[in-house]
Design brief:
Layout: E1 4-5, E2 9-12, H1 19-26, H2 41-58, E3 62-67, E4 73-81, E5 91-97, H3 106-121, E6 126-132, H4 136-144, E7 148-149, E8 155-156, E9 167-174
Antiparallel strand pairs: 1-2, 2-3, 3-4, 4-5, 6-9, 7-9, 8-9
Helix pairs in contact: 1-2
Length: about 180
């Protein structure tokens, strides 16, 4: 598994010590506001097991996110293959951070590293990102990392029941030309 370093962050393999803070994040209503129901510890642990296995299988996926100076676990960032049931195929970039890490530019910094990995190491020509229409903070990160949105690409997530989390916006980033 590739480990990525930025000025302030380490994007790394998941550790057993990440399970507790990851579960706490998934039990935080503010962190889960645009993601749906809160996760039990069991479901949270299962998500880590799935992320580890997916990364090992594909050679890319979700990294645990750590502040280099303190070693504090602050969330995840990564790349994932978009499910066939979704209207836009491809590879998606995403992030989820603890509330204490919000507002420090960590999501942007980590996402820039993730995009560079997608384009330079994996050789992808395009990376997508989506979020609910009301998740303005994530949309701001998407714009800061150079992604653009065409409202014609917005969609209803077929995996989400009717309600405020179903309508999503789609952003795209393309590999820079040499």
């Amino acid at each position: 598994m590739s480990e990525l370093r930025t000025d302030r962050l380490l994007l790394r393999r998941w550790r057993e010590s990440d399970l507790e803070p990851w579960a706490a994040m998934n039990a935080d209503p503010e962190v889960r506001k645009y993601l749906g129901e809160l996760l039990t510890r069991e479901r949270s642990d299962a998500a880590v097991a799935w992320m580890r296995a997916a990364y090992d299988e594909r050679g890319f996926g979700w990294w645990a996110l750590e502040v280099r100076e303190t070693g504090e676990f602050i969330g995840r960032v990564g790349l994932d293959v978009i499910g066939e049931d979704m209207p836009h195929p491809g590879v998606d970039i995403g992030w989820r951070l603890t509330r204490s890490a919000w507002g420090h530019g960590y999501a942007t910094e980590a996402a820039v590293a993730g995009l560079a990995f997608a384009f330079e190491t994996l050789g992808l020509t395009e990376v997508l990102a989506s979020t609910t229409v009301d998740n303005l903070r994530s949309q701001a990160v998407m714009r800061r990392i150079g992604m653009t949105r065409d409202p014609a690409d917005d969609f209803d997530d077929p995996s989400v029941p009717e309600g405020p989390l179903r309508r999503c916006v789609l952003y795209r980033a393309h590999r820079p030309r040499a």
